[in-house]
Amino acid sequence: MFRQHQITEPDSERLAAFLPGLRAAVEAASQAGPIGPINTLLEQHPPLIRVDDHDGEGASHLHFAPNGEDAVSWLGRSCSAALAHVVCGDPAVTIGQCSAVDCERFYVDDSRNRTRRFCSNACASRTTVAAYRARRKATG
Q: What is the dihedral sign for C-alpha 36, 41, 45, 50?
């Protein structure tokens, strides 16, 4: 994705400083609010909306950050705009937090009926196996 948008790899220190705010905004979007963390991200990384056709003629789409920008600014602008759309009720996107014990990951729920509960098949399987073992242990 970075290469496609002429973005150099992020500086690890700047990225580490950016990630807690992004996590707070993603968590807020997954719960449909509070909006404070998303507004903070928007203030720190305001989107610069533009139409881009880098995928070829007839494939125009919105970008929220210019190609070639530094990685943290590009991520911040892109993520802040996307999360603002989610928290304002974009019906095409639902963000959830994994229900598996000890997993703190988030995911985009693109299932047909928006009932996804886990970030991956590994977390779903681990949870299913743990529940099965607990039932077996309880019955003797």
A: negative
Residue 60 burial (CB count, 10 A): 11
Q: What is the pLDDT of residues 121-133, one digit of tens each?
A: 999 999 999 999 9
Q: Which 3 state secondary structure label does DSSP give 84?
A: helix
- Residues 13-29: what's their mean pLDDT? 95
85-139 confidence digits (pLDDT tens): 888 877 778 899 999 999 999 999 888 888 899 999 999 999 999 999 999 988 8
Which candidate, 72, 68, 67, 13, places its Cα nearest to that of 44? 72
User: 14 Cβ partners below 8 Å, 6+ apart?
Assistant: 72
CA dihedral 28, 29, 35, 36 (to 10 degrees): 50
Write a three-state SS string for 61-87: EEECCCCCCCHHHHHHHHHHHHHHHHH
Whether 50 and 15 have beta carbons less than 8 Å apart is answered as no
Contact 79, 38 (CB under 8 A): no
CA-CA distance, 39 to 81, in Å (whole number)? 10
Q: How far apart are CA 68 and CA 99, in angstroms?
A: 37
